[in-house]
Amino acid sequence: MNLINFFDTFFKLDVSRGILIKEGDNIQLICDLIDGIPFNITKVKWIKTSGDGTDVIINETSQNEIVWMSVDRTLSANYSCMALNEAGWSEQSNHLELDVKHLPSQPIIRPINGDYPLKGDNLLLECLLEDLGKPEAEEYIWEQDGVPFQDAHNSILNVFNITLVNRGNYSCAAVSAAGKGPKGNLYDTLAITFYLHFLFCFSLF
Fold first, then answer.
1. Could you check whether the bond before residue 117 is cis, i.e. omega within 30 degrees of 0?
2. What are 24-80's pLDDT values in tens digits?
3. Rounded-to-integer distance, Cα 186 and Cα 157, Å
4. Which of 23, 39, 108, 186 is the most exposed place for a label (fewest CB within 10 A)?
5. pTM of the shown model
6. How far is the C-alpha of 49 from the C-alpha of 31, rounded, in Å?
7. Longest C-alpha distance within the chain, in Å?
């Protein structure tokens, strides 16, 4: 009497930091056996589906799990697995999408109304990003000398009627669902303007 051996696999993903996967997270890929005779797995093929739909075997292991440390966006793709027991190779498992999010890039701060606004003018600064991140940034954090502006959450900062207290270092950072990106800085804003203005006034005495 011939025994017909069979088994099936299911692919799943365990993430150490929750559902949202972002660059720097550690993830665990698991090829689970749903059913089979015999039940033990001796090898697993890990398969990546490229953008054109081509399946590529990226690894073959003796364990049913692999761990990737500090993932980055280049690993974003659809993955599946196949497992081997004494009955042979299983059918290819379900496909699982790995979508690695990333933070917004470091911004550059650009003065909108000139490099040297005068006392009493408005100071307009724009927070420029090369990459808005994935998902895209929805909020901005502005600071002067490390102190946040409480009501400034857009890419443009408007400081009205500037005085000497507005001198200092300005920074901005973009925030998305993946987290806060790195800061961009504009150092010693208004220092030259007020210094020259003071010398001019002083020379009148």
1. no
2. 988 888 887 776 665 678 899 999 998 788 899 999 999 888 889 999 999 999 998
3. 13
4. 39
5. 0.74
6. 16
7. 114
What φ, ψ does residue 100 adopt, rounded to 5°?
Answer: -85, 120
Quote the DSSP letter at residue 165. G
- What ranges make up the beta strands (E) of the chain? 7-15, 27-36, 43-49, 55-61, 65-68, 77-85, 88-89, 96-98, 108-111, 123-128, 139-144, 147-148, 156-159, 168-176, 179-180, 184-189
Residue 16 DSSP label = T
Please determine, for residue 174, whether its predicted confidence score (pLDDT) is greater than 70. yes
Rounded CA-CA distance 177/128 in Å is 19
Question: ∠20-26-29 over CA atoms, to 5°?
Answer: 90
d(CA 173, CA 138): 11
Amino acid at site 76: S
Q: Which amino acid is at 142?
A: W
